Amino acid sequence: VPQGGNTGLVGGSVPTFDEVVLSLANLNKIISFDESTGVLHCQAGCVLESLYQHVEERGFTMPIDLGAKGSCHIGGNVSTNAGGLRYLRYGPLSGSVLGLEVVKADGTRVDMTSLLRKDNTGYKAHQLFIGAE
């Protein structure tokens, strides 16, 4: 069971039987931020508030703002397709995610990252993981 900031209200990160809890708190690195495109590449354990500060210092804003921004992780936000206070202006978080790198339950790593805002080469496979909890 992957576990982020534990701000969800449905108990999705709480083990019920003999599952292994995997904390993503140490996956908290900002890998890159391209100021010409506004594309942020980060790890799932990044706290939303730290991402907000990082992009704000460069004149940008995050498309999501939550009351729990000081403890929620971006991985959890993506996993629940969180809306937040800026939903009406920027839409759901799924519209702002260009790609994902996912590790499946069997350990297989699937890289679905892209820097293209528009890609008509097929299905957007990363969208299957957004909001899947």
TrEMBL record:
CC cofactor: FAD
Q: Which GO terms describe its cellular component?
A: mitochondrion
Molecular function via GO: FAD binding; oxidoreductase activity
Q: Which InterPro entries match?
A: FAD-bd_PCMH (IPR016166), FAD-bd_PCMH-like_sf (IPR036318), FAD-bd_PCMH_sub2 (IPR016169), FAD-oxidored/transferase_4 (IPR051264), Oxid_FAD_bind_N (IPR006094)
Record keywords: Oxidoreductase included?
Answer: yes
**Domain FAD-binding PCMH-type, first and last residues per copy:** 1-133
Q: Which UniProt keywords apply?
A: Oxidoreductase
What domain of life does the native source organism fall in?
Eukaryota
Report what the protein is called: FAD-binding PCMH-type domain-containing protein
